[in-house]
Design brief:
about 750 residues; alpha/beta; 3 domains; six-stranded mixed sheet; glycoprotein; acyltransferase; N-acetylneuraminate (7)9-O-acetyltransferase; membrane; transmembrane
C-alpha cells in the first residue's frame, strides 16, 4: 500500500480489460456523459498547448462536452471551442516546440492582469526531434527550454490544474520517411528530461505540475493500430480524454463509480455516534468478560488440604446473561462494521471496474452447479417446496446473482432477463411462505410481525447508519418488507379467514379469493398510477425510507418491476394447500405428485414453458420493452421450475445441502455483497490483493461468506433479546425502538441541514 492518492495511480498506471476498457491501478474510472461533463466544467476555461498529438487530445476532450464537434480548421493553428449554454471555453494553442514562444504564452498567464485558465494541458517534443533530425543539440536545447518553463508552470499550478503530457511511443515501422528520425529511444530521452526537470523546485509542495504518463502505457498497447505510426487511434485518445475528465471532475461530481481522485468522505454525526456506541460495546463486553473470568477463578476447584484430593467446584460456570449476550453481539458487529467501513468508505483497499466476458459468468456458474450436485442428500420431508428445498432454491439463486453482480453481466440482456426471474422467484417465495404461515397457523400476533421485520431489516438499518446510505439503497429489503406488510394486512383485516375456519364452511374460500381479487385490483391501479403511488410514499416519515436522490421514482420502478409475483405466490400457496387438504396430490417418498399420466403431461408442459421463456428472454432486444412484459410472464418460468422440481418423486425427495447452506444466509449474502465483496456501492470490485484477480476473488469471497454467516447468527441472537415473546416486555422494547428511530430522524434532519 503506497498511500491514498489515487490521482497519481490514475495518471500513471493501469491496464486494459479486453481491447478498449482501461482499468486504472487501484481505483475506478467513471464514464462521463455530456451533461455531467458540462455540469463539472461550467464557467471553466481549459487550454491545450502543444503539437498535433495534443490537438488530438483536445478534440477528444471537447467531444465529451459536445459529441457533434467535427475535427475541422487549420491543423497548424489555434482552434477555439465554446459551449455558451454552460459558459465553457476550451482552446487549442499551436505550439509544436518547447521554445521561447511557448514560454512567453505561459508567462502571460502568470501576470496578474490576465485571467488564468482553470486547466492547462501541455506537451511537445516530436517536432523538435523531426526538425533537428534527432540531434543531441536539440535535446540539450529542449532541456534548457523546459527548465525555463518549469517555474512558470509550477507557479500556475498553485491556482490551476496543470498537466504535462509525456510523449507517446511511435510505431517505427509505419512512420513516413520524413519522420523516421522520431524513434522511441529519442522519445524516452525527451520524456526522461521532462520528468526530471518538472517539479524539481517544488518537491515538497502540494502545488505540482501533474505528469500525464498513463498515455504512454495506453499507446504501447494500441499504437500498432495507428494510421501513420505517430498519432494514436481514436479509441486510445478518447480514453486519455476520459482520464483527464476523471482527474478533474471526480472530486467535484463525486460519482459513485468514480473512486479515482475522490477524497475520503467525512464522518457524519450519525456515523460518529455509531462508532462511539460500538466502541463502548466492545469495552463493556471485555469488562464483563474479565469480571466473570475473575469470579470463575475464585470458585475454581482447590486442593483439600487434609486428603490431598481435588474437590469439584461448588459453583458451576455462570450462565451467559442477557446483557453479556447483547454486548457480545454488538462487539462482533462493531468489528464487522469496521471492516465494512474500511472496505467501501475509507481509501484503504483498492477498487476496480467490472468487465463482463461470457467466460467470467458462465464458468463459475457451471462450477457451483457441479459442486451443488456433489452435496446431494435426502430430504426430511417430501412435501412440495419443503424447507430444505426452498433453502436450496434460495441458495443456488443467490450464488447465481452474486456471480452476475461481480462479473458485470447486467450489460448482457439475456442474462439480465434471467436474473430478473430469480429476483421474482425470491418474491414469489415471500408470497408463498408468509401466506402459508398465516393461513395454516392463523397467528396474526405482534410478536410474529416484529420477529419478521427485525430479521429482515436489522442489518440494513445498521448499514444505513454506518455506511451513510438511505434505506431505499438496499432496495430488496424494503421490497420484501412492504410485501410482507401487504400480505399481513390482506389476511389480518376483517374478516380473518384461515384454514381452520375455511374447513368448517367452504364459502370462506370464496371470501379469501375475494380478498385476493381486491389486492390484485389495488396492485394494478398503483402500477399504472405513478402519481398515486408517489403520494402514498412521499408522506413524512415514509419518504425518509423510500426516497433515493430526492424522489421515490426508483422505489416505484423496483416495486412495479415485480408487482404481480407476490400475488402469484399467495395464489399458488392457496391452491396447493387446498389440493393437499383434499388429498388430490400424492407427496409420499418417491411417488409422483399426480397420477402417472397427469404427471407426464404436466412435466412435458413445464419443460416446454421453461424453455420457451428462456428463448424469449434470450431474444430480447430492448430492455425497456422486456421489463414491461416481465411482471406478467415471469411466473411462467417460476411455476415451470416448481413443477419440474416437484412432480417426479425421486427429485422431490433429494436436495443439495451445499445450496441449502447458502440459502439460510441468502439475505445476508445479498446485502453484504454491496460493500465487502463488490465495492463503490456495487459499481466495482473490491481488491484486497492487487495483481492477482483470481486469488483476490478467492480471499475476498471467503471473508465475505464468513461475515455473512456471522451476521446471520448475530441477527438471530439479537432477535431473541430485542423481540421477546412476553407482550408487556415486547411493548417496552417497541417503545425503545420507536425512540431510537425518532432520534435517528432528528439526527438525520440535522445532518441534511448542515449539508445544505
Amino acid at each position: 500500500f503506497k498511500g491514498g492518492d489515487t490521482c497519481e495511480y490514475l495518471l500513471s498506471s493501469g491496464r486494459f480489460l479486453g481491447e478498449k476498457v482501461w482499468q486504472p491501478h487501484s481505483c475506478m474510472m467513471h464514464k462521463y456523459k455530456n451533461s455531467e461533463a458540462k455540469n463539472c466544467l461550467i464557467d471553466k476555461h481549459i487550454v491545450f498547448i502543444g503539437d498535433s498529438r495534443i490537438r488530438q487530445l483536445f478534440y477528444s476532450f471537447i467531444k465529451l462536452i459536445n459529441p457533434q464537434v467535427k475535427e475541422e480548421g487549420n491543423k497548424h493553428g489555434n482552434i477555439p471551442f465554446e459551449d455558451k449554454s454552460a459558459s465553457i471555453k476550451v482552446d487549442f494553442l499551436w505550439y509544436p516546440e518547447v521554445n521561447g514562444s511557448m514560454r512567453q504564452r505561459i508567462k502571460s498567464w502568470t501576470e496578474g492582469s490576465v485571467a488564468k485558465p482553470h486547466i492547462i494541458v501541455v506537451g511537445a517534443a516530436t517536432w523538435s526531434i523531426k526538425i533537428h533530425n534527432g540531434s543531441n543539440e536539440a535535446l540539450a536545447q529542449y532541456k534548457i527550454n523546459i527548465t525555463s518553463i518549469a517555474p512558470l508552470l509550477e507557479k500556475l499550478a498553485k491556482s490551476s490544474d496543470v498537466y504535462w503530457v509525456l510523449q507517446d511511443p511511435v510505431y517505427e515501422d509505419m512512420l513516413s520517411d520524413s519522420r523516421k528520425m522520431i524513434t522511441n529511444e529519442k522519445i524516452d530521452a525527451y520524456n526522461e528530461a521532462a520528468v526530471r526537470i518538472l517539479n524539481s523546485s517544488s518537491r515538497n509542495s502540494k502545488a505540482k505540475v501533474k505528469v500525464f504518463s498513463v498515455s504512454k502505457l495506453i499507446a504501447q498497447e494500441t499504437i500498432m493500430k495507428s494510421a501513420d505510426g505517430l498519432h494514436l487511434p481514436e479509441s486510445s485518445r478518447d480514453t486519455n480524454a476520459m482520464i483527464l475528465m476523471n482527474v478533474y471532475c471526480n472530486k467535484i461530481m463525486k460519482p459513485i463509480d468514480g473512486s479515482c481522485c475522490q477524497p475520503q468522505p467525512p464522518l457524519t454525526l450519525i456515523q460518529k455516534l455509531a462508532f462511539c456506541f460500538f466502541t463502548l460495546s466492545i469495552i463493556g463486553y471485555f469488562i464483563i468478560n474479565l469480571i466473570h473470568r475473575n469470579n470463575f477463578r475464585k470458585n475454581k476447584s482447590c486442593m483439600d488440604l487434609e486428603s490431598g484430593e481435588e474437590k469439584k467446584p461448588a459453583v458451576s460456570a455462570p450462565n451467559v446473561s442477557t446483557l453479556e449476550m447483547l454486548l457480545h453481539s454488538f462487539c462482533k458487529l462493531g468489528l464487522i462494521m469496521t471492516y465494512f467501513y474500511l472496505c467501501d468508505r475509507a481509501n484503504l483497499f483498492m477498487k476496480e471496474n467490472k468487465f463482463y466476458t461470457h467466460s467470467s459468468f458462465f464458468i463459475p456458474i457451471v462450477y457451483i452447479l457441479v459442486l451443488g450436485v456433489f452435496y446431494t442428500e435426502n430430504t426430511k420431508e417430501t412435501k412440495v417446496l419443503n424447507r430444505e428445498q426452498t433453502d436450496e432454491w434460495k441458495g443456488w439463486m443467490q450464488l447465481v446473482i452474486l456471480i452476475y453482480h461481480i462479473s458485470g453481466a447486467s450489460t448482457f440482456l439475456p442474462v439480465y432477463m434471467h436474473i430478473r426471474v430469480l429476483v421474482a422467484a425470491y418474491l414469489f417465495q415471500t408470497g408463498y411462505g408468509h401466506f402459508s404461515y398465516f393461513w395454516i397457523k392463523g397467528d396474526f400476533g405482534v410478536y410474529r410481525v416484529c420477529q419478521v421485520l427485525f430479521r429482515l431489516n436489522f442489518l440494513v438499518v445498521v448499514l444505513c447508519i454506518v455506511m451513510d446510505r438511505p434505506y431505499q439503497f438496499y432496495y430488496f429489503v424494503p421490497l420484501v418488507t412492504v410485501w410482507f406488510m401487504i400480505i399481513y394486512a390482506t389476511l389480518a383485516i376483517w374478516p380473518q379467514i384461515v384454514q381452520k375456519k375455511a374447513n368448517g364452511n367452504c364459502l370462506w374460500h370464496f371470501g379469501l379469493l375475494l380478498k385476493l381479487i381486491c389486492l390484485l385490483t389495488c396492485i394494478y391501479f398503483l402500477s399504472y398510477s405513478q402519481g398515486a403511488f408517489e403520494k402514498i410514499f412521499s408522506f413524512w416519515p415514509l419518504s425518509k425510507c423510500f426516497e433515493l436522490n430526492g424522489n421515490v421514482y426508483e422505489w416505484w420502478f423496483r416495486w412495479k418491476l415485480d408487482r404481480y409475483v407476490v400475488f402469484h405466490g399467495m395464489l399458488f400457496a392457496f391452491i396447493y394447500l387446498a389440493l393437499q387438504k383434499r388429498q388430490m396430490i400424492s407427496e409420499g417418498k418417491g411417488d409422483p405428485l399426480f397420477s402417472n399420466r397427469v404427471s407426464n403431461v404436466l412435466l412435458f408442459i413445464s419443460i416446454v414453458s421453461f424453455l420457451t421463456y428462456s428463448i424469449w428472454a434470450s431474444s430480447c432486444k430492448n430492455k425497456t420493452e422486456c421489463n414491461e412484459l416481465h411482471p406478467s410472464v415471469s411466473v411462467v418460468q417460476i411455476l415451470a421450475f416448481i413443477l419440474i422440481r416437484n412432480i417426479p418423486g425421486y427429485v422431490r425427495s433429494v436436495y443439495s445441502s451445499f445450496f441449502a447452506w447458502f440459502g439460510k444466509i441468502s439475505l445476508e449474502l445479498f446485502i453484504c455483497q454491496y460493500h465487502i465483496w463488490l465495492a463503490a456501492d456495487t459499481k466495482g470490485i473490491l481488491v484486497l490483493i492487487p495483481g492477482y484477480p483470481m486469488f483476490n476473488v478467492l480471499v475476498s469471497t471467503f471473508i465475505f461468506v464468513c461475515v455473512a454467516h456471522e451476521i446471520s447468527q448475530i441477527t438471530n441472537d439479537l432477535a431473541q433479546i430485542v423481540v421477546p415473546k412476553d407482550n408487556s416486555t415486547l411493548l417496552k422494547r417497541l417503545l425503545c425502538i420507536a425512540g431510537f428511530f425518532s432520534g435517528l430522524l432528528l439526527f438525520s434532519a440535522m445532518q441534511d441541514q448542515s449539508r445544505h
